[in-house]
Amino acid sequence: MIEICALASGSNGNCYYIGNNEDALLIDAGLSFKQILKRMEAKALDPKKIRAVFITHEHGDHVRGVRVLGKKLDIPVYMTNGTYAASFRTWKPVSYIAIENNIPVEMGLFKVYPILKNHDAAEPTSFRVEHRGYSIGVFTDIGTPCDNVKQHLKQCHALFLETNYDPQLLKEGPYPYYLKVRIDSAVGHLSNIQAFELLKEHAHPDLQCVFLSHLSAENNRPELAYNQFKSLEEKFLVKLTDRFAASELYTMA
User: Fold this and answer.
1) What does the pLDDT look like over 58-115, one tens digit per residue?
2) H or E stretch including 6?
3) Is residue 52 assigned to a domain?
4) Is 124 within 8 Å of 141 (Cβ atoms)?
5) CATH of the domain at 161
6) DSSP assignment letter at 146
7) Does the model's pTM come out above 0.90?
8) C-alpha distances in angstroms, 45 versus 55, 71, 185, 214, 223?
9) Could you tell me whether strands 24-27 and 158-162 are parallel, antiparallel, or unpaired per DSSP bridges?
10) Which end of the chain has the least Cβ crowding within 10 Å, N or C?
């Protein structure tokens, strides 16, 4: 059995849970330790099962809680050397284990693959987590999807996939011009349309479930993201994440 859940997904915090009956890991810790525990409790998830946390990049909504989380749970923190060096001083973990592109980290029945990607951070990664022949991907904060991302995404049976913005809302929205350009750039974020096209072309034939993730509060709407993917629902489940509460807990079939 594999259970997955977005404990938080959005610009105010990101944290993704992947676990089996005995062990679990977190991808990102962009919430306070207290909030992470609160959201795990709401889904009856046991923090004592967590064996490690993996960090995608140094932006606060992905890393601000990792220092306390690592200390309180006494678990290893995995990130690239570039991410550690660029992290804000008070967010840096006391210690960390360096990871490298496509070199897996084995942890019980889990094998975690770091995937270098295009994003405006020092050395950002996505992750694909293998477990007894199944793969779960966390693919957020991606500008232009590179071959590395595509190769790993097409192996996934479940996905947390970024649908950050609707192009029209971004264009007409309140953000300053330079920020709009950054979001829409090759090292920015995936729009609803870009994510849909990526999945339509590269989805695994046995993909079970996609969680639409990292939605912008200002430049997207849940119904817009969901409607973009509605035509694919005959092939796999499409679910939404939330910035203020944990998502549905999904059990892999």
Assistant:
1) 999 999 999 999 999 999 999 999 999 999 999 999 999 999 999 999 999 999 999 9
2) strand 3-8
3) yes
4) yes
5) 3.60.15.10
6) P
7) yes
8) 20, 19, 37, 22, 28
9) unpaired
10) N
